[in-house]
Each structure stands twice: as structure tokens, then as C-alpha cells.
Please model this.
Amino acid sequence: MAPRRGSALLFAVPVLALSLFLVGCPKRPATTAASAPPPTGSPSPSAAAPSTAPSPSMTPSPVAPSTSPTNPPAPSEFRATDNLKDVFFDFDKYDIRANDAKILDTNATWLKSNDNLVLIEGHCDERGTNEYNLALGERRAKATMNYLVSQGVQASRITIISYGKERPTCTEHTESCWAQNRRAHFLVKAR
Amino acid sequence: MSLNRLSSLLRPGRPLAVIAALALVAVTAGALSSPPPARSQGADVLLNVLATGAKKLNIVIPNFAVLSGPDTSNLSRGMAQVTARDLTFSSLFSVVSDVPPIPTSDPAAVRAAFASFASAGAHAGLQGLVSWRGDRTEVEMRLYDLTSPEFRLIASKKIELPSTQTRRLAHKVADEVVMQFTGEPGIADTKIAYVHGAGGVKELSLMDYDGAGASAVTSNRSINLSPMWSPDTRSLAFTSYMRGYPYLYRMFPFENRPPQVVAGFLGINSSPAFSPDGRFLAMTLSRDGNPEIYVLNLATGAFRRLTTYSGIDTEPTWSPTGREIAFVSERAGGAHVFVMDAEGANVRRLTRAGFNTQPRWSPKGDTIAFTSRQGNFDLWAVSPDGSNLRRLTAGPGNNEGSSWAPNGRHLVFQSSRSGGYQLFTMLADGSEQQPIARMPGESTSAAWSPRLP
Model:
């Protein structure tokens, strides 16, 4: 057998760190080229399918859902207003709290005398998953919409959007901050 | 028993003595029926080593030798280093590298080198022979059993790729070494898609599984979420606000074509998950009034609704057989993980305590990882029958959003342990937690690709 000159190789300490070896990345071509078209201010032809057909077998094209005259305006077309106040929610809840119902009553009164379209944004705090919070924000916006409708605001004037945890107003990691982020927020657009 | 079975036994948490005993049976039985010579030799070496009580197989990976062409950038050394790092990451090997190349022409010198490695405790040796051929590079890998007196050759294989992909070539060598010893290829030739950024702009990015070669996938200055790979690794499904509302898109990161809208209904279009055969895409839509789980037949465009609860149902994840889907529902109060069959029937509850989201079914089928909030957020795992509930992380910070490597032995996840969210990996039992690469800004929602073709 060979001399033991290799005994300097000891396996007690596994490998050394990989140093600078960043040349020649094994990438397929054109990795970054296919980015999306920029957001536009007007509804895209494939922007939204009708929401009025709850049949599970309803089948828009998987590539380009059919357009519909009921397409809502893009969120960017709505504007903030001081006339509609935010309402807030408990952690992982989407029921309207009693104090917030009074705020919504005031909002409903204003909406009934001002014929705007309204966009209700549902928001969540930063805790939990993006996907679950998207669903939770949707439920908050929907619960808010349902309350306004129960107070006589036409459902056809209202569009909802969930931003989940993606657009917090407050970015500190504290309960007081989280409470501000668990909200439904209102924007309006003239008809 | 097959060698595939052997690799499934080689998972963390299992006593190694048990692995060795079971696997010896596996190899013996396999050899009696249909012996694939190269593989069973490698498995034999590994099993004999584990049978001695060793925890890992010691492998020496000298710098690759250059047979032809220039090596001005010293890439043959760099490639060996990448392979070495991959094999260390696999947790099956203890690796020694950064050793001079094994001489290629003198048999006596080769033997002397192997003898010295063996006397230092090496069980196996990997020789890499690199040939540069213009825009192509070839590596011939030779794997030797250093526990045998004659240092027998376990396997040899030539792998060739464009010369711009030498790093990938080194990953493929590592995956072949794992294949030779366990019967299942390694996971080094994979990508991780993830969400990068915060504060209202989140873009999708891609990197190699080890953090190298990060590159942008989207650049729409919008919110892009929840990337999921198609099984053929050609496309990613994801949610984006690029057109204002949260629609579900599919894009082809390696091809030059625009993203397709997959679902653009009123409400949310989110949480995509391709079926294992790639024919269906499960997702969450609120078009019928509240978040429900649907399955889209990608060939026909037909949507099928699977859930009917009046509150939140979301985050579907397929079993590797495609026969079942785990998901999150608040139907029992709070958020819990449930399992249903792929038609939506036979719903059963998996979790009881905590606030549980992000179920991710292991590609091996035997485990569902999920995120549980019991104070902070941490990763847990449970068997699909609800048994064997165990905790994988225990802080610090929040640990969330796992995704399985295609061999079911590793998980990538996001952790806030060092401040903003960064991506980490760990073994399936929660051990060996380590950061992938420190990126500027926050990195979340990692999706580990299947093996690249």
C-alpha cells in the first residue's frame, strides 16, 4: 500500500466553505426577458371574468378570461376621500365590531347622497401567510360591503379588493401597529 | 426491495443502525432479482460504511483534472468545490476537497493517491476529468470504492453542457454521485423561486438551490406572490397585482414570452398548486362569494369547485399521487389543515391546536409540513393520517413558508431570526438549519423546483 502521506486528510471536520466561485452560472437562456406588461390605467381586455355566474362548471378560457361589461374600473382610478372612514378588525376576524358599525352607518349615509362608485380595500396585519391573509382581507372587504348593502347602498356601486398583508399603513412589529393595519379602507370614483 | 426504497430509508431522524440493517436487506434482495451492477456497488459501499456505525460516507473530491483545452479561470477547481459543497449539503457525505487533482496518466500514482486517501479514512473518491471543447464542456466523473483493496471503480459517466454552465455541470456530477450511492439522484441541479422585496413592491426571482445566480423573473413594480412550479419546471404560477386586481398568472421564466392570465375573476385569484402530473392547477378563487378551492383543467379550461364552506378555504397542496389535496380552512374555527380527496369529498381534519397555514405535502407523500402560530410562527410536520405531529423549528423569530426539495429530504423556508425575512434550508427533521444566501431586502415564499431536465 501507499505511504500514509495523505493522513493529513481528516474527515472529522467536514468540508470547507465554498469560496468565490460565481463564474459560469448554469442558467438557461433568456431567464429574465419575459416580464409582464406594465400595469395600465384602464381595464385590460382580459382583466376580469364575470362574477355573476356561480356555477362551478362555468369555464372561461384558462389563458384569457372573457371580458365583461361589468368589469370594474382599475383600482388606480379610485381616489381617497375624507368622507369615508376606515373600519378595523380583530386578529383573524372579519365581523364588523359594534363601534365600527356606527362608522359604516355614517359611510352609508354619505354614499346614499353621493352617487360615487366605491372600492373597498381589505387589509390584514403582517402576521401569517400571504395566501391566508389574501383570503382574510377579502372576507373583511366583503363583510364591509355586505353591511353597506344592508344599509341601502347599491351593491352594483361597490367593488372589493383584498391586499392581504401586502399594503400595511403602519410597519412596526407591534400590536398597536397591527391593529391599524387590520382594516377596510374606502376609495371613490365619480360615475 | 428496490434501491429507490433504500433512498427513502436514508432520511434524517431514522436511527442509522436501522437504516443500515434495512438497507442491507434491500440490497441483497435487489441483487438477487435484477442487479444493476454500478448502482448496487455504490449502495453496497454506503451500506457497509453505515453498518460500521459511521454516520456519513467519507468522500474525497480532488480538484478536477483538465484533459484538454484552457483552464484560465481555474474552473476545474471551482467545479470540484461546487460538487463538494453539494455533497456536504446532502448530509449523506463527509467531504474533503481542495486536494490536488489525481494524476490522469500514471496508474501507480493514481493508486498511491487512493491509498493515501483510504488511509486517511476516505470511503470513496471522486475523480473529475474536464475537457473544454469550444462552447461545450464535458466532465467525465469516475467514482471509486476506497474500502475495497483494489480501489474498484463504482461508476463512470460523462456529462456535457454548454461552457457557460460549468456550475450546473458540477451540480449534475454531485447528483450522479448521490444516485450511485442511494439509487435516487441528488437535488443540486434545481432552482428556487422566491418573492423578493417589501413595502408594496414584491417581485419574483430565481436562484440556484444554493443561492448562486439570482436573477429577476418579474419586473412589473407591482405585488407578485406565491410562486409555484409546474412539474416540468418550465413554468411558474403566481398571483400578481400587475393589472390592478389579484389575478393568477403563469409565466415561463426560461422562455421569452409574456405571462398568461390563468384566472382573472372578480375577487382573489390566489394560492396556485400544480397537480403532480401537471394537468391541473388548484387555486383559491372568491368569485362565488368567499374564498373556495377550485381545480382548473389546464387542457380544457374547465374549473371545478372543490369546497363549499361559507368562510375561508385556501392554500391547496397536492399529495404526490394526485389523489388527495391538503388545504387550510377556518371551518373548525381558527385556521387548520384539512385533507380531502381530489374531488373534494372525504374531508378530514389534521391539526387541532394553534393557527395552522401553508401546508406543503412532501414529494415522498409521508409528511405534510405546515406553519403553526403558537406564539411565534414555526414550522411543524404531520403525517397525512394525522399522526406523528412534530415541531421542526423553535424560533428564533418566525419560521414560515416551507417548500420541499424534490427528494423530500430538505426544506427551504423563510425566517426572521436575523431581522428581515431571509431564506434558510434544513433537513426534514428540522436539523442543519442554515441560510442560503444573504440577499439585500427581504426574501420570502420560496418554491423549490423539481429536478431540472
User: Anything to note?
Assistant: Chain B has six helices and 30 strands. The first helix of chain B runs from residue 3 to 9. The first strand of chain B starts at residue 57 and ends at 61.
